[in-house]
Amino acid sequence: MTALKNDRFLRALLKQPVDVTPVWMMRQAGRYLPEYRASRANAGDFMSLCMNPEFACEVTMQPLDRYPQLDAAILFSDILTIPDAMGQGLYFETGEGPRFKKVVSTLADIEALPIPDPHKDLGYVMDAVSTIRRELNGRVPLIGFSGSPWTLATYMVEGGSSKDFRKTKAMLYDNPQAMHLLLDKLAQSVTSYLNGQIKAGAQAVQIFDTWGGNLSAAAYQEFSLAYMRKIVSGLIREHEGRKVPVIMFTKGGGLWLESIADAGADALGLDWTCDLGEARRRVGNRVALQGNMDPTVLYAKPEAIRAEVGRILASYGEGTGHVFNLGHGITPEVNPEHAGAFLQAVHELSAQYHD
Asked: Domain Uroporphyrinogen decarboxylase (URO-D) spans what residues (predicted)?
């Protein structure tokens, strides 16, 4: 494989020295970019974009071509590929987001679910990873990803997105045996899926626990974190002669940072509700930190964006172990020039914090 020309993202995740704080954006390939919207129109719809490795590669590369400051590429895909491969029938309703043709509601439903083979059932994702990796040609590292078992379970039980997760939480409390079986199957599926991505060329992986923060403290430990810990313990941690860092991100997980830091990942993603400096004090040297600017700051003027970047960098302070990111995904209405100002500010303002 081609040697990496820019590895500061991987180095920061492993708390190794860097020249400037590395930066990337969740959802950096997305609807805020006119070139993405053109590619999606050419593909026909979102799933066609995801399931065609050439289109997935095209949109993965678009933000890198526009923003030379980006220190990583992230696979263009969707977190719901695993439930779809389990036979749930993923589709997208205009204005309503993801939906499933089948829902999981009983123990028998869960017992019937297969565990997907990443190469046979999700081969289009593996092909996308290898295609993107070739196209990158060592430019920056490639991040693979998956949804967490709890997050995937909420979509499978609810049949789509939810505001209150009433069906999922009812199953959790009424029938914990069924919920644990579902989460265990999903943990096995995510482990093999991420290992497949690593073998195909992903150089770091992130677990997106989008809805873990909606659980109580006790339920989070039992039904979300325990299964992410299981995944991390089963991941390939070294490939192609170098370590493969793992990032764990629970949106709304600020109350449980110490527990997440002990779960075995190399880095902990933070949403914007956490103070970065306080998070660093709480977790010590156990993990690197990723985050955590409020994505809506990008609606402000470039000088205000730059000021907020400076504040967050100062909060973290000197030394490595920080990957700058947004506290969640960039939103579709952001002006691409504002995203560029954000990325430029991170590199320009962070050099003073590194030897």
From this structure: 22-31, 143-159
